[in-house]
# Entry
Amino acid sequence: MEHIDISEIVQYGEKHVGETVKVKGWVRTSRDSKTMAFLALNDGTSLKHLQIVIDKARFSSEELAPCLRNGVSVMAEGVVVPALAAGSGYELNAESLSLIGDCPSDYPLQKKYHSLEFLRTVPHLRVRTNTFNAMLRVRSKVSFALHRFFQERGYTYIHTPIITGSDCEGAGEIFRVTTNGYEDAKTAADEAEYIARDFFRRKAGLTVSGQLEGEVAAMAMGKIYTFGPTFRAENSNTPRHAAEFWQIEPEVAFAKLPDIIKIAESMIKYVIAAVLEECSDEVDFFEKAFEKGLRAKLQSVVSSDFAVLDYTDAIEILKKADEKFAYPVEWGLDLQTEHERYLTEKVLGKPVFVTNYPKKIKSFYMKQNADGKTVAATDLLVPGVGEIIGCSEREADYDKLLSAMTERGMNLEDYKGYMELRKYGTVPHSGFGLGLERILMYVTGIGNIRDVQLYSRTAGDLMA
Ligand code: 4AD
Ligand code: MG
# Structure
């Protein structure tokens, strides 16, 4: 007999009552009494476990004892029945039971509850907890919903390169890619020779964003999105920054800032509606374990408008705030997480697009506003997390782009193709980057980015 997914019984148990089925999975916990034993079996297809009910009279103790250990993998065959406790779904009355893989008592996950900090020390096993089971399923559903959102609207999915020669954000947070060894650094006459010996004969690094190449694609395909890993060597040890994270980056020809803001808002609502619809058990779990009021928060995001606030007004609000900030508030300075969270949590109580930042604190590619001081950029801030989207209209005028790049002392040679987009049939266009892990933190209530990835990479910690 083929085995079936545990989710099939959890979700559609009624259909299977009376049937004999076979399941395989890992024992999360077991209970043993005089005449009966119970296994909570999980195979990863559902957050809920399947209870295997064992009438001990039917099994020898040699048969049974190994299957009752936490962490073992077993196969069980039996009849699907409604659970004895009303409203507890369906369970399996075991007719045969066999051990697939043993799990000795030094298995680290023996307790019902382990701290997230402890679980980071066993990344190969933490996936077997309810938290990671739920998180990984939500991560998968969110990713697929993002694809669906753009695919349903005629966008083309573009794979932009991971290895690149340009720094999109200009923040110098690039991981270098090189095949040069330590000896090359010692023996090369100068930097030019060192680079000439290198694989690409020029400086190369891991991409911090697919945007620049995404713009190239959008100038032919009109509406595109990228969705892939990006890398930043930010030496900041915060719960929100990872060295490797996933970004979804749409780029839309002929769109101006208000247009792209609308797209971003409907995308977020679409994804959150999908989570409520497809991950209801997981939302309940996260509500209990991580964030009280999570479901109501997600529902209200779907059904109400996001706020839009000009950066200049945001500074005024922060200056008047009845709150001691660690970082200064001044027009021209960037907003820190504490400021972002104050605005979105205390002032507005919902997601907010902060628009028109000073050009000095933003990237070279952003469209310069007529005031000469600000750019047509926006960050989407959400309660509990802060920034989840960085967005802007792009500078489509060759001379203005050239002057922004020259002011920043950028090496124009590296961006020749990018600049030529403004020479050959330039059009207004806009795009944004959504950090996948940031939105996962928002929808799960998990407070640390290290716990919304299978393995996290942060400064000083290559989790393994
Ligand atoms: O605001 P950022 O730097 O914008 C860009 O990279 C643009 N090129 C995007 C675009 O317009 N196509 O990053 C975009 C988002 C942030 O809002 C945040 O959600 C996420 O990427 N992000 C990070 N997530 C985790 N760890 C980090 N170190 C992150 N840095 C940015
Ligand atoms: Mg940003």
About this structure: The chain has a mean pLDDT of 96.
